[in-house]
Amino acid sequence: MIVPIVIHAGAEVAVFPGDDRILLGEGLFETLRVVEGKPCYPRHHWFRLMQSADMLGIDVDLPYCEWVTHLEHSLRKANLETGGVKVLLGAGSAPRGLLTKGEQPRLVLTPFSCAVNTKPIRLISAPWLRDAANPVYRHKSVNYLEAIMARRYAETAGADDALFFNLENTAMETTIANLFLISGDTLYTPSLSSGVLPGIIRGRILELGKEQGIACLETELTKNQLEQADALFLCNALQGIRAVQSWDGFTYNTSHPLAATVTELLSKDTCHERDSR
After folding, report:
1. Distance CA 262, CA 90 (A)
2. Which residues partner with 188 through β-bridges?
3. Count of C-beta atoms within a 10 Å radius of residue 245
4. 28 and 79 in contact (C-beta within 8 Å)?
5. Interacting residues of 50 by C-beta distance below 8 A, sequence separation 6+
6. Of 101, 126, 112, whose CA–CA distance to 179 is shortest?
7. pLDDT digits over 107-133, tens only?
8. How many alpha carbons fall within 13 Å on the CB side of residue 106?
9. Which CATH number fits domain 5-112: 3.40.1190.20, 3.30.470.10, 3.30.540.10, 2.40.50.140?
10. Which of 243, 228, 203 is closest to 41 using CA atoms?
11. Burial (Cβ within 10 Å: 0-12, 13-18, ≥19) of residue 136
């Protein structure tokens, strides 16, 4: 059974021992938004974490009820009403070597305060291409050096974030968010086969769109399609939806009515709340 470590305001320091596989990049994380003292989409985050842990061979016994208990305990301990909580799952201690298997995975929860940034974002294409077949991109792993380098490149170029493209030169995602394109009355987003992370909000937008009769297509998005788009927006679990002001010099409508509709649907989403189903 996992014994969670909760960090808040420096009250505790979580130190992964030097033999933990997370120091080789063998670890996962989830970042949940917190509203009115409750974690948002806890079941969705738990399912993705457990699915990735299983795929990576991380032997973790964490039933959903215990997951929720750990989250709620961390938020009470931090007395947090609004913000987020980051959850790290390390693969556990193991002898040296790439093929050794970790034991006793560690779960570290860090509640934090933050505000939602609604300012439209400026994007620039990352200067290198990703391989869509790389399985790392399909998991929310702690391997974030590439994203850090891309974000620094964007900042140096006067942008806010970098948009990745794959070897086929179709759009993927930014360093921290999934991408949506609006053309007419249709939503488009890169398919999972493009090499993107199956984002929690991305998935809910597709599900809500289907329920509400909004045309939503998962497909390959070319640079020409991005150039001709009416609007672009990004989404992630912490920030929700954020309009794109520009990408590589092309500008977009930052107050598109369809984006506003999707934002409203998310604000009323019942799956947003904690549940015990």
Report:
1. 35
2. 181, 217
3. 17
4. no
5. 60, 62
6. 126
7. 999 999 998 899 999 999 999 999 999
8. 18
9. 3.30.470.10
10. 203
11. middle
Two domains, one topology: 5-112 and 121-271: no
CATH (residue range 121-271): 3.20.10.10
Question: Has this prediction a pTM greater than 0.85?
Answer: yes
277: buried, middle or exposed (CB in 10 Å: 19+, 13-18, 0-12)?
Answer: exposed
Q: Amino acid identity, residue 33?
A: R
> Looking at residue 32, what is its pLDDT?
98
Extents of the domains making up the chain: 5-112, 121-271
Distance between CA atoms of residues 253 and 26, nearest Å? 40
Q: Which residues of the chain have pLDDT under 50?
A: 9-11, 276-277
What the block records as the tokens of 147 is 């994203």
Residue 75 tokens read as 């938020």
d(CA 122, CA 250): 10
Phi-psi region of 2 (alpha: psi -120 to 50; beta: other; left: phi over 0): beta
User: Tokens 């993927």 belong to which residue?
Assistant: 172
